[in-house]
Structure formats: C-alpha cells, structure tokens
Design brief:
Strand content: under 5%
Number of strands: 0
Oligomer: single chain
Largest sheet: none
Distance between the termini: 16 Å
Shape: globular
Radius of gyration: 20 Å
Order of helices and strands: HHHHHHHHHHH
Amino acid sequence: MENLPDAVGPLGLILLALVDSTSMGTLVIPVILLVVGRGGALRVAGRTLLYLAVIGMFYLLLGVALLAGLLPLLDAFGHLLGSPPLMVALAALGLALVLYSFRIDPKAIAKRGGDPEASARRWTARARRASGRPGVLIALALLAGVIEAASMIPYLAAMGILAEMGVGLVGGALVLTGYCAVMVLPAAVLCGARAALGDRADAFLERAHDWAVKNATSAFSWAVGIIGVIVLLNTVGPALAFLTGGAVS
C-alpha cells in the first residue's frame, strides 16, 4: 500500500469529502430542516447551521481519535504493510468492496424487493420532529453522526490515506478540519440561499432535497466501488506473485 498516498493523495481526500458531503447526515437532513423549518428564513438557516456545526465537529473529533490510533500502529507495524500475506488480505478486501458496491446500488436493492430510499424517509421523519428545537437538533446531529460513522467507508478510507501521508497528528488534524469543512460546505451554501432568498428558495430546496434523497445511496455505492478498485490496483500484483510463486505478477 505504499503507493496509495501517491496514487490518491490530497485530490483523493477532496473527492472522498465531497462524497461524504452527500450523505444523509451532511446533506439530506440539513435540506429537510431548511424545507420544513418555521420562524423566519434567518432563524431556520441559523438552526440548520447549528446542526451542521455539531455534526462537523463530531466527525472532526472522531477523525482525530482514529488518526491518533492509526499513527502508532503504523509506526509499530508499518514494516509489515508490504508483506505478501497482507497484500493477499488487502486484495481480497478490495474485491469484497467492489462486490459490495454492486449489492448496495439502488437498482440492485430495488431488484431484491427493497426500498433504497427507506432510510431517507426515516431520517426525514426524525428531522421534521427536530425542526425548530435547538436541543433536539443537537441530539439529532449526534445521532446521525454515530449511526452513519459505522458505515462511512469513504471517511474511513480517508483516515487510512491521511495516516499513510506522514503528516503527523497535528498536521492530520488540520487536514481533517478542511475535510470536515468540505463535508458540510454544500449544505452550508444552501443555508445561505435560505437566509438570502427566504420563501423564494422553497422550490430550489425541494429539488435539492429530492436529488439528495435519490442520489445519496448511489454516491455511496460508487465511492465504495472506487475505493475497492484503488485497493485492488495497489495490491493485486504482489498478491498474485505470492499466490503463484512469482509466475504471475
């Protein structure tokens, strides 16, 4: 995996942050809050920004904690990253991620009789109940962060890339601050539109909500698949060489 930071690097982090910015917690819920909020455009935008600040801080602290744990592990076991058995395991993981990306594609979910937008509707109901209540909004942001963190493969991949870039904990925390800012930026821009345009932004926000609900799962599926391909490209050669005794590399 030593070539991964060179192959992905800062551009990869930006792309992963943009994918994370389309998640349920960072885009769909904020748009719902902007659509259903009451009490004036500035108040609605302000409360939504409060939600974004809380969830952004949650992911920043989570990322710093993960990075603090990863860096000592790399120092202690970094020499094993290029070992053939680990390359085989990572290649298998990359393949599993590619296959999983097809399984969670909205069309595949629909073919199995599932509802790819079911999660979005549940979060819509929660956001409607929380709208206009700052304390409940903070709780909603933390709940969204905790629930989504377990499935945020792009975010976890970003932590791995950042750990291997060798920027250290302080530098990594600064990069993570920018990463989390990008995560909440699209929703923050929509808050600005609500504050500036008031009710005139309703039609646009409704369309933004429909787009976010429709594409959140699809974006996540693509991100998982791309991460799987990157892992495969960086490990399949050494893995095949090990498994075939050097006949294939």
